[in-house]
Specification:
- By secondary structure, the chain is an alpha/beta fold.
- The chain folds into 3 domains: 351 residues, no CATH class; 34 residues, no CATH class; 177 residues, 3-Layer(bba) Sandwich (Glucose Oxidase, domain 1).
- 38% of the residues lie in helices and 13% in strands.
- Strands 9-10-14-13-12-11-15-16 form an 8-stranded mixed sheet. A 4-stranded parallel sheet has the order 2-1-3-4, with helices on both faces.
- A hairpin with a 2-residue loop joins strand 9 and strand 10.
- Helix 8 packs across helix 20.
- It is globular, with a radius of gyration of 24 Å.
- The model has no long low-confidence stretch (mean pLDDT 94).
- Its cofactor is [4Fe-4S] cluster.
- One of its GO terms (molecular function) is 4 iron, 4 sulfur cluster binding.
Length: 605
């Protein structure tokens, strides 16, 4: 139970709505859990293949029905700064498992693409689809049925949601997510944004821009702004799939390594072979999903999770809606100011008290379900802590989270919030449904009424900007960017351009069926518009000059055209064939055909 009646009411309606799908899901994972891994009944030939590459000790243990075997799903590659530290993790995990008489094997690698590299590029059209590919790739590895539990090594945008979908599909297995942590702080985010905007205006050259970007993204670990990657870590911790306090510890530090070893030991302690069997499908229930949404709002997290959380919940048989997310926003105070919602980065957030402080504040206010099952045990209160390294440098020790914030401008208390409601809101109107991240938008800029300027590609807007055609009030309607059109790319190339125009005193806003992600910035943006243009949604009927009203305060998105006129217009049907080939896009044709809408998770499942 929570102390807040409204949280309980929303949880109850999610539970009631989900009953027809949640109960069959639970029956499936209970039946599978009762069977145990097939390793115990494999033919000798099957089992020999399963441990052929292992050393003598591991072979001996794997031949024993009573020795737990841990599956490692890794998103390691050394191009992504956030995932490069995972190169060392499998050996750390194997060693920690051997020390307690168990075994661990890398079950599979999964792809991990960097949205920072593909931003504004062709590859971004495969980014969202990569989430479901990751889920399937993890499923291939786990399908060998050799494992008693699994650890998931992933941190960035689509990787963690994809791994979470896989973990819940294999919900009979205990699961712990093991982060790599954020890179150390570099060039402040506001300075990086200033240089980007100067470059957009032609006031500095590419050399200065690259210098600023390199000073910002400078080493191993996640990007330090509060985008989807760091929102992922917050979610895994507040939903009970991390070990407590592990989200924001920097890579390649003694504490980080100690936490990886500890996560290994914990995963092996909660298998069906012991007395604390904790399958992932029971950790992630309706209460855990609500806790995740509350955490997202309290921190001003990524708009991508209005899709990812819906898809993750669905993998556990839980039906989460945008209305649920919106209603939870109304009752959740904003407690964190991390870029783009403030000037601090996630290292400053962690230093101010981090996840332990945040969870304690929300629990004390009655805004989280405390009596939940977690990978660490029962009860979320165990996560209201601060993790440190023991005196001998080998173990993780935990203390109560600090009573006071180390920096009230970054992390505040529930009785002195930055805002009385969360950072994400839903928009409704005659253009359909959409999402807006208002926490990064100044209050005086949250309502825009201006004529539409329609584009079918973000590059078209840049051409118009460079030609001086946008020096006025307008609402940029960038459509045919939804999942069925071209995979729903993020449109961050637009942020500096629209920011320049807003700084010149113009009223500007963005309306799109594409994405803007966790880095949605200071310009009001109605994103994830559903139905999308490709399916004939009303956004496909908007014309240049139509007045559009985006009201982030009341939650409305309207084209000010009478209903009869709007419905009489034929929707635009541009040629999208250029989005179907090149850099592997032809391999994703089936995804574009099968994908659902943003409101239902933009999933192919």
């Amino acid at each position: 139970m929570t102390a807040d009646r409204r949280i309980e009411e929303i949880t109850d309606r999610i539970r009631e709505r989900s009953a027809p799908t949640r109960e069959p899901y639970l029956q499936r994972i209970r039946a599978k859990g009762a069977e145990g891994p097939k390793r115990t009944t494999l033919t000798c030939g099957n089992l020999a293949h399963g441990f052929a590459a292992c050393g003598p000790l591991d072979k001996e243990r794997l031949a024993d029905d009573h020795t737990p075997n841990l599956g490692i799903i890794t998103a390691y590659n050394d191009m992504l700064s956030a995932h490069q530290p995972y190169e060392r993790y499998p050996e750390l995990i194997r060693e920690a498992a051997r020390e307690i008489g168990a075994t661990a094997q890398v079950a599979s690698g999964v792809p991990a693409m960097c949205d920072g590299v593909t931003q504004g590029q062709t590859g971004m059209e495969m980014s969202l689809f990569s989430r479901d590919v990751i889920a399937m790739a993890a499923a291939v590895g786990l399908s060998h049925d050799m494992f008693d539990a699994a650890v998931y090594l992933g941190i960035c945008d689509k990787i963690v949601p994809g791994l979470a979908i896989a973990a819940l599909t294999f919900g009979h297995l205990p699961a712990i997510f093991v982060p790599a942590g954020p890179m150390t702080s570099g060039l402040p985010n506001d300075e990086k944004s200033r240089i980007r905007q100067l470059y957009a205006e032609g006031k500095v050259g590419r050399d200065k821009l690259l210098e600023a970007e390199s000073q910002s993204y400078h080493g191993p670990g996640t990007c330090t702004f509060y985008g989807t990657a760091n929102s992922n870590q917050m979610l895994m911790e507040i939903m009970g799939l991390h070990t407590p306090g592990s989200s924001f510890v920097n890579p390649n530090t003694p504490l980080r390594d100690a936490m990886t070893r500890e996560a290994t030991r914990r995963a092996l302690a909660i298998t069906a072979l012991g007395n604390e069997y904790t399958p992932a499908g029971l950790v992630v229930d309706e209460r855990a999903v609500v806790n995740g949404v509350v955490g997202l709002h309290a921190t001003g997290g990524s708009t991508n999770h209005t899709m990812h959380l819906v898809a993750i919940a669905a993998a556990a048989g839980i039906k989460l809606t945008w209305q649920d997310i919106s209603d939870l926003s109304d009752v959740t105070p904003l407690l964190a100011r991390v870029y783009p919602n403030g000037l601090a980065d996630v290292n400053h957030f962690a230093a101010a008290g981090g996840m332990g402080f945040l969870i304690r504040e929300l629990l004390d206010r009655g805004l989280l379900h405390e009596d939940v099952r977690t990978a660490w045990g029962r009860g979320l209160r165990a996560y209201a802590i601060e993790a440190k390294l023991s005196a001998d440098g080998d173990q993780v020790v935990r203390h109560d989270a600090p009573k006071e914030s180390g920096d009230p401008k970054v992390l505040t208390t529930a009785d002195r919030p930055f805002s009385n409601n969360g950072g994400l809101r839903m928009l409704n109107g005659n253009l359909g449904k959409a999402v807006i991240k208002v926490s990064a938008v100044k209050p005086e800029r949250r309502v825009v009424e201006a004529p539409a300027k329609v584009f079918h590609d973000q590059n078209e807007l840049k051409v118009a900007f460079d030609a001086g055609e946008l020096d006025r009030d307008f609402v940029a309607v960038v459509r045919f960017q939804g999942p069925k059109s071209n995979g729903m790319p993020e449109l961050h190339k637009l942020t500096p351009l629209l920011g320049v125009l807003q700084d010149r005193g113009h009223k500007v806003a963005l309306v799109t069926d594409g994405r803007m992600s966790g880095a949605s910035g200071k310009v009001p943006a109605a994103i994830h518009v559903t139905p999308e243009a490709k399916t004939g949604g009303p956004i496909a009927r908007v014309k240049d000059g139509d007045m559009i009203r985006l009201d982030g305060e009341t939650g409305t998105l309207e084209v000010l055209v009478d209903a009869a006129t709007l419905s009489a217009r034929a929707p635009e049907t541009p040629d999208l064939s250029a989005n179907e080939f090149g850099l592997g896009r032809e391999l994703f044709a089936a995804f574009r055909l099968a994908v659902g809408d943003a409101e239902h998770g933009a999933s192919v499942f």
